[in-house]
Amino acid sequence: MHFDTIIFYHALYVGFAYSMLAFGATYYRQVVDDLNLQEVSLGEDIASVELTPIIWLSVGSFFFVFCIFAVIALIQSEGNIFLYVIPIACAINITQLLMRAHHQRLLIKTQGIIVRHLLIEGNIPIPYRDVKRIYINEFIGWFVVEFFTDDDNVPVGSCHLRTQDLSHIIRIFRQKNPQCSVHIDGAFTMVLDQ
Fold it and tell me: Among 32, 42, 92, 115, who pairs with 157 as Cys (CB 3.0-4.6 Å)?
């Protein structure tokens, strides 16, 4: 096991430069999305939903790569800047994803919802009155919710929700748009219909 302090400091410098670019891009995207959000008038905020399974998969994969390269960097007989930079970059990406996850969440408003994806730019405003059909499918303890405004099979937006968030969304849609049909696939049909 070998740890070269000088090479590690150089790797930290490269990581610092990378973090400036990564966090700058995250901040820029957040500002652009917030400016686009101001143009949407769907009423007041009621609630928001954070931390979907995509975030946990992304963070878990970056953590896995972080662990692999950290072990490889430590078992090398000589220090290598690339092997030191990769775990630092993975730690920066984990932090960046968690920051992005905090900002990009499903916004539940009084007149509709706004779907804000983690890895896709932009917001998808969906007024309650325009939704004709909601299709819900179970996904590893979560639910994939797709919103349809037309009779065709192309969803306007989709998101991942937990059981309590899903029942909240269904309750709001049933109050605001009684004509909207809700199709539920999975074992939690009885819980959600109550």
Answer: 115
